[in-house]
Amino acid sequence: MKPPLPIERIGPIDQDAFYDRYVRKSKPVVITGLTDQWTASRLWSHEYMLEQYGAATVQAYQLNSKGECDVDMDKGSPTRPTVLSDAMLSMREAEISRRWAIATSVDHFPEQLRTEFAAPAYCADGRFLRSMIFIGAGGVVSPLHQDLPENIYVMVQGCKRITLFSPWDHVYPNPRLSNLPNHSQIDAERPDLKKFPDVVYAQPYIVDLRGGETLFIPSLWWHHLRNLEPSIALNFWWSQGWKLPIAMAAALYKKWRAI
Questions:
Q1: Beta 141-145 vs 222-227: how paired, if at all?
Q2: Can you name the residues that pair with 165 across neighbouring β-strands?
Q3: Which of 31, 83, 142, 205 has a C-alpha 20 to 30 A away from that of 151?
Q4: Nearest-angstrom CA–CA distance, 66 and 61
Q5: Angle at 53 between CA 52 and CA 55, to 5 degrees
Q6: Which tens digits make up the pLDDT trace of 226-238?
Q7: Which CATH number fits domain 9-258: 2.30.40.10, 1.10.3470.10, 3.40.1440.10, 2.60.120.650?
Q8: Phi, psi of 228, rounded to the nearest 5 degrees
Q9: Taking 60 as the threshold, does the pLDDT of residue 77 lie above it?
């Protein structure tokens, strides 16, 4: 694998410039100061979420012994409905495989939560706009995968190390196309070069994303995430052009599988 490259960092810019420089060019970028005015930037912490929203029923992942969101290459990425307080209390367990990580739509929270943040102007008018909230302890890992929509990923609290690869890098996507075509077979942190020799040509981009910073992950860019600290993140997915009907169909399929 090639030595990692940094990701460009900028302050907030206007919407046209963002689209011209980053969305249209499929180029990741870190934006600082974009969410300084959010109430969430002041209030959100693990303690606040537990006290304010502990009764909410959210979707959560069981972690495996490596701290990874337990992805089954045959069945997908199973989440299950969990009371938020139960999932958050599990994050205090000494054994990481006894913990849960929350990855759930903001729609699973009371309306108050949505008053504590606002979609950035870059995506506020985006088609099929959806938001997820991610809450986890230090050490949680999301294995290497890609998403069809454009993705604005806001680190509200804590720090994550995020590794990106372009859609054109060969990182061995799962060949079982009916199940998880958007998941890589490699461990982005410790790739097995004997099993996956072409990874030596892959170019990683790495950033330690901290509270108050925002990462734009372009459509189909591969990304691997590791919590360096207990963290809370919020993302915004939106789609455009030919990707819109595919993204909508994929969302409907996931909803149908969850029934």
A1: antiparallel
A2: 222
A3: 83
A4: 13
A5: 125
A6: 999 999 999 999 9
A7: 2.60.120.650
A8: -85, -20
A9: no
